[in-house]
Design brief:
Layout lengths: L1 H5 L1 E3 L15 H17 L4 E3 L3 E4 L4 E3 L1 H10 L6 H17 L7 H4 L3 E7 L14 E3 L2 E8 L4 E3 L2 H6 L3 H13 L6 E4 L7 E5 L12 H7 L9 E4 L5 E6 L6 H16 L10 E4 L2 E4 L1 E4 L2 E4 L3 H10 L2
Antiparallel strand pairs: 1-16, 2-3, 3-4, 5-7, 6-7, 7-8, 9-10, 10-12, 11-12, 11-13, 13-14, 15-16
Length: about 300
Amino acid sequence: MSWFNRRQRRDPGTDPRDPSFSFLSADEGRRFRATMREVLAERGIEGVVSETHLTTMDGAQLGFYNIAAYCHSFGGDPGSWPALIGEHLDRLLREHDSDPLDLPVDELLPTMFPRVVPDFQMQYRDEFRYGPEVAEGLWVVLALDRPDTVTTMPDTAVAELGGFDELWPRAMENLRALPIPAHQTFGRRAGGWFHAMIDDSYFTASRVLVLDELLTRMAVPFGEDGVLVTMPNRTQLVFRPLDGSAFAPAVHDMTDFTIRGYVDAPGLVSPHLYWWRSGELTQLTQHEDDRMTFDLPEDFRELLDRYGE
């Protein structure tokens, strides 16, 4: 299996990417920040604008990630960004004046879901200490799916509602109850097939937390060898059950598919390929410079040998 040791996958795309928001090109990132400054100034919002957030004069911080993702998703023409950013800021200001936690608990609980996020999205990690780590660099937080926005809950909000241990079962119950969207099959060459669930929900990738139940509901068989799985962004869950047939081509095809979904979409989760077994995720790839390399544990190599490449 030395071929897998050497094998590397180059990230797609030749345009330099923005260092903080990789779904934007470097030029788009510069234009986005310039537009942010203009829109903030028009609204009289003063502060220090960094690469990733605004720090206001009173010390409050406004992260730019969701606004940049909003522009990427709905504003193909950068000329439309001022209006989109203005709408987003106005919505945030309205939400600031009407804290969703002011609502009765029985109205909040049905809107609460677990969300898998990468550590770089958690700009203020100290505010989300309750969230468990599900894989290297991937954390679970609780979020409220409100009509106009998805609000991630910090430690203080979780404590006010009874604590993580009290809220976690209900959040998982809500995740399990989500409808099953359609899925597509890609990579139809011998051994290279895999499925992709693509949906607008912010919690599609988070369904990896209940992957066995999800595949059972979808009537997709899987066994004790587990499942190859990726979560490129919040709206995609990609998977290939290890069913006893050759699957080495799927390792590569899923990696390429995932890198593209990670680079080209907002709501980034992970560019990596994982091996799911009994609820545990083992990372199979590593990112080095601009390349993805494979780092396969011995028991996974044994499966590749057993079923052939």
